[in-house]
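Chapter summary example: a protein plus zinc ion.
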Amino acid sequence: MRECLYCGGAIPDDRHKNAWTCSKEHALLLKKEREAKNYINVRSTADPIIKLREHFYNVAYEFGFEVPIELYYVSPLKIDWSLKTGTFIREGNVGVALGDIGYILFKPLIIKIYKLC
Ligand SMILES: [Zn+2]
C-alpha cells in the first residue's frame, strides 16, 4: 500500500500509477509546499545579488547606461564589491556582472554601468 506524501493517507487505486498523493488536491498542495521551500532557498542565497542588481538598475535609469558616472552617486559604501555572477569585457576592460547588468570601475572614481543582454 502506497501512502500520500502530503497527508500520509492511502493512495486510492483509481489514482494513476505514478501518483505520489491521494488526490489532485493534495498533489497541488504538495507542489505549492515544495515551491515555497525552493523559493526560500533561492531568496536566501541570491538576495544580496538581487538587491545590488536593482541598485545598479536604479542608478543606470537615473544617469544612463554606458556613460561615466561619478562613483559618489552610486553610494559606494552600501555596495558589497565582492558580489558577482560573472565577468564581461567592454572597451578592453574586465567588468563585474550581476546577472543581466554589470559595471566597470574606471579611475579616478568613475563607474560605467552596462546592460549585458
Ligand atoms: Zn493526501
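Key point: The helical segments are 24-63.
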